[in-house]
Amino acid sequence: MAITFEDYRRHDALGLAAAIRRGDFSAAEVMQAALTRLRAVNPVVGAVTWLDEALVERLCRGEPDPAAATGGPLAGVPYFIKDLHAPVRGVPLRHGSRLFADQVFDFDSETVARLRRAGLRILGRTAAPEFGMNVSTEPVLTGPTRNPWSLEHSAGGSSGGAAAAVAAGILPAAHATDSGGSIRIPASVTGLVGLKPTRGLVPTGPHRGDASHGMSHEHAVTRSVRDCAALLDAVVGPDVGAPYFTPKAALPYLRAIDAPPRRLRIAFTVQDFTGAPVHPDCAQAVQSAARRLQALGHAVEAAAPDFDAPALFAASTKLLLTGLAAQVAAREQQLGRAARDDELEPLTRAAVEMGRRVSGIEYASQLPVFNAQVRRLAAFFETWDVLLTPSLAQPPARLGELHTRSTDIEDYGRMMRRYTPFTGPFNATGQPAVTLPLHWNAAGLPIGVQAVARFGDDTTLLQLARELEQDLGGFDRVAPLSPTALATKDPHP
User: Alpha-carbon distance 392 to 129, whole Å?
Assistant: First the structure.
């Protein structure tokens, strides 16, 4: 008997792989279940933007995937790679941009190669905003990605397609990237686990070296903490020539989460790093998590790091925008022409122009600012093991609220700081940070809580996440994507 959607959905990635090994159902049946769900929901949700149709057809017939290992811990599980940063052999990498519409690489990134060795079957790409600039996934290239918890709301960004695909039940986990919160923001608004690992723990090469001055990371969004740990085990360790090196933990992360964390000293804050209050829903989520952790035996107190958040944001922005300008310039050189007006969104064009105006001296002058604030922020963790914050300062945004139609970079920056002040600082420090689905508001929308640990202490963070997951009986609430909602929703706002 063919696998039902409920059979498929109730398994995480490790569960699917184990069921395939046991013979409960075949890899072909799993692939057909994923494809059936994708065809049912993707026209409305807009999570997947490119599908390897020929590969999917072969896999649904029970033929092997020549690129994936057959004996890995995740063998037979479907997977998608975000349309940003990570090359996949023969698959377009468009960065959510019309300027890169026909870019195809002839190699896999090291992360993708390691995911294949774990047995994952890479089927295509998930949506991303242009160059990952927006915290909502609404690129002109592929259209908006909707939140499965409310189709009027954003699925976040920049890994919005990945998060929507998992929350919609297309697959149990998906690749994601994070240069300022792009794993944690969409995971927060779609009710998922989203870990940004420690800098240097996951490879970014060979095509990228010092990825966004060390601010850019790759990992995944998942439904379960154990999938998060298993995927980290699959890719952990720098690649040859990497500019950053963070040693692996003593134990594999999946084994380590079998044990609870030691008694931790945990700080929490319900204000942003300038002292401004956050939305009551977001404050309530953190306060509830703090009470749970105290009940679990941890020492929990209100406290926050002391650093100049606006100065760090400004320095990080200039560093990121110069990198964007360089990326566009390299593409223009490759094409032998300048980018046309219809190939870049208005905000992107303004950001590129701003990046081009940054001189070498001005760029270099940002590095001491960056360094000073990073050190002040990281010093907080000499006293505290973990910091709890809201993942976002506001509930999930509606589609269209966080748009890229404006050319006012300063105004967009202010909007970003109001919406997501908590994630970017830890891209600058390189510390591990995870968002957990610990709260839903009265409107039924997910409100994530972020936990941050010391540099290199991903194990403690995953153990704490697992402890909370078990305390709550699992992170497995299902988004209300009913057949009626899918049938009546206009996919084109």
Answer: 18
Cβ-Cβ contacts under 8 Å for 109 (sequence gap 6 or more) = 85, 86, 87, 88, 203, 204, 205, 206, 207
Q: Which two tokens mark 42?
A: 């993707």
Strand pairing partners for 434?
A: 195, 451
CATH fold for the domain made of 5-488: Amidase signature (AS) enzymes (3.90.1300)
CA 446, 134, 275, 459 torsion: positive or negative? positive
Residue 90 has pLDDT above 60, yes or no: yes
Which residues are identified as catalytic? 82, 158, 182
For tokens 């409920």, the residue is: 6
Domain definitions of the chain by residue range: 5-488
Q: What is the average pLDDT score of the chain? A: 95
Beta strands at 446-453 and 433-440: parallel, antiparallel or unpaired: antiparallel
**Helices vs strands, H then E, count in the chain:** 17, 13
Tokens of 193: 């686990």
DSSP for 98-130, written as a single string: GGGTT-B-SS--HHHHHHHHTT-EEEEEE---G
pLDDT, tens only, 181-240: 999 999 999 999 999 999 999 999 999 988 898 999 999 999 999 999 999 999 999 899
Look up residue 299 and give its DSSP letter: E
CB 16, CB 76: distance < 8 Å? yes
- Alpha-helix runs per DSSP H in 171-300: 184-190, 225-235, 253-256, 280-295
Cα 292 from Cα 165, distance rounded (Å)? 30
In this structure, the dihedral spanned by the alpha carbons of residues 67, 70, 72 and 75, taken in order and rounded to 10 degrees, is: 90
DSSP H helical ranges for 171-223: 184-190
Tell if the pTM clears 0.85, that is, is over it. Answer: yes
Count of all residues that appear for the chain in the document: 493
Calculate the CA dihedral of residues 366, 372, 375, 377 and round it to 10 degrees. -90
Three-state SS at 41:
helix
Helix (H, G, I), strand (E, B) or coil at 420: coil
Nearest CA to 235 out of 224, 225, 243, 246 is that of: 246
Radius of gyration of the chain (CA): 21
Specify the amino acid at residue 138: E
Strands 193-196 and 299-302: unpaired
Q: How confident is the model at residue 492 (pLDDT cuts 50, 70, 90)?
A: very low
> What dihedral do alpha carbons 53, 55, 57, 61 form, nearest 10°?
-170
